[in-house]
TrEMBL record:
Protein name: Tyrosine recombinase XerD
Protein's GO biological process: cell division; chromosome segregation; DNA transposition
Broad class of the protein's primary localization: cytoplasm
CDD domains given in the database record: INT_XerDC_C
Active site: R151, K174, H246, R249, H272, Y281
Family indicated by similarity: Belongs to the 'phage' integrase family. XerD subfamily.
Subcellular location, record wording: Cytoplasm
Organism: Leifsonia soli
Pfam families associated with the record: Phage_int_SAM_1, Phage_integrase
Organism ancestry: Bacteria, Bacillati, Actinomycetota, Actinomycetes, Micrococcales
Subunit structure: Forms a cyclic heterotetrameric complex composed of two molecules of XerC and two molecules of XerD.
GO (cellular component) term, any one: cytoplasm
Listed GO MF terms: DNA binding; tyrosine-based site-specific recombinase activity
UniProt keyword annotations, A-Z: Cell cycle, Cell division, Chromosome partition, Cytoplasm, DNA integration, DNA recombination, DNA-binding
The encoding gene: xerD
Function: Site-specific tyrosine recombinase, which acts by catalyzing the cutting and rejoining of the recombining DNA molecules. The XerC-XerD complex is essential to convert dimers of the bacterial chromosome into monomers to permit their segregation at cell division. It also contributes to the segregational stability of plasmids.
Length: 301
């Protein structure tokens, strides 16, 4: 059965069996027309294959589409219609499970994440080059943050023991949830130089601490320290836009998705509890992803 046929069956049900008003049925019809159109754009012709992740992506689309993003109240109403539609399909035996059971409006940012380009990241990281202990630390810190997408609180919260076999780190995120994230070659080299040549010097200036990144007095580096380090590096790199620790996290996610990474993998790397949060980055990279598709798919040209 097609999506259109399922929609018609649902509308007959709410009009005849539930006796809803013509205006309410018309509102349901408009909502489900938007949903059906979006499913068609995704290549989905049968609601039986819709998953919770599919619906999360639809919710993000509604709240962030450029042509006419929905207000919070309109988004909540439309998702309520979609939940009722899927509940009806389950009761009718059309779907094996209710994919929309836990569907809720996503927490959408007031604006899309701001990322910088790969070249700008390279310039920012190059601005930390140097042989003194502060430069070695700053280089390792920024390379690690870009390599892992770590939040600033996660980066300063790292202990030496969280570096596993030099190529993997254990990050502790919101709610004390831990995740394992790999390190690329540049980050590995920078971290190794810092651990061998700089951290022992910094550690000797204060009390013993398990902290990975240390300040000039030997104590754990603070979040404010990281802000100042990144701001100084951005000035040396002559980057015009405002750069914050979260800019590196945004850039990490955006560059991965632009390179073709699966959104579920990026979700795990970022430590997002919901894929809907990660889906925001797919909007930032849409143009780049289209370029990748055009260059890579044999039937794209």
């Amino acid at each position: 059965m097609t999506v259109a046929a399922d929609v018609d069956a649902f509308l007959r049900h709410v009009a005849i069996e539930r006796g809803l008003s013509e205006n309410t049925v018309a509102a349901y019809r408009r909502d489900l027309a938007v949903y059906a159109s979006w499913l068609e754009e995704q290549g989905i012709g049968d609601v039986a294959v819709v998953t919770p992740a599919t619906l999360s992506a639809f919710a993000v689309h509604l709240g962030t589409r450029e042509e006419s993003p929905l207000t919070a109240s309109s988004l909540a109403r439309m998702l309520s219609t979609v939940r009722g539609f899927h509940r009806f399909l389950l009761e009718e035996g059309r779907v094996p499970a209710d994919a929309a059971r836990d569907l809720r409006p996503p927490k959408l940012p007031s604006r899309l994440p701001k990322a910088i380009t790969v070249d700008q990241v390279a310039a920012l990281l190059a601005a930390t080059d140097g042989d003194d202990v502060a430069a070695l630390r700053d280089k390792a810190l920024l390379e690690l943050m870009y390599a892992t997408g770590a939040r600033v609180s996660e980066a300063v919260g790292l202990n030496v023991d969280d570096v596993i076999d030099t190529d993997v780190v254990r990050l502790t995120g919101k709610g004390s949830k831990q995740r394992i994230v790999p390190l690329g070659g540049y980050a590995q080299a920078a971290l190794s130089s810092y651990l061998v040549r700089a951290r022992p010097v910094l550690s000797s200036k204060g009390r013993a601490t398990p902290a990975l990144f240390l300040g000039m007095r030997g104590a754990r580096l603070s979040r404010q320290n990281v802000w100042l380090i990144i701001r100084a590096a951005a000035e040396r790199a002559k980057l015009d836009q405002e750069i914050s620790p979260h800019t590196l996290r945004h850039s990490f996610a955006t560059h991965l998705l632009a390179g073709g990474a699966d959104v579920r993998v990026v979700q795990e790397l970022l430590g997002h509890s919901s894929v809907a949060t990660t889906q925001i980055y797919t909007l930032v990279t849409a143009d780049t992803l289209r370029d990748v598709y055009t260059a890579s798919h044999p039937r794209a040209r």
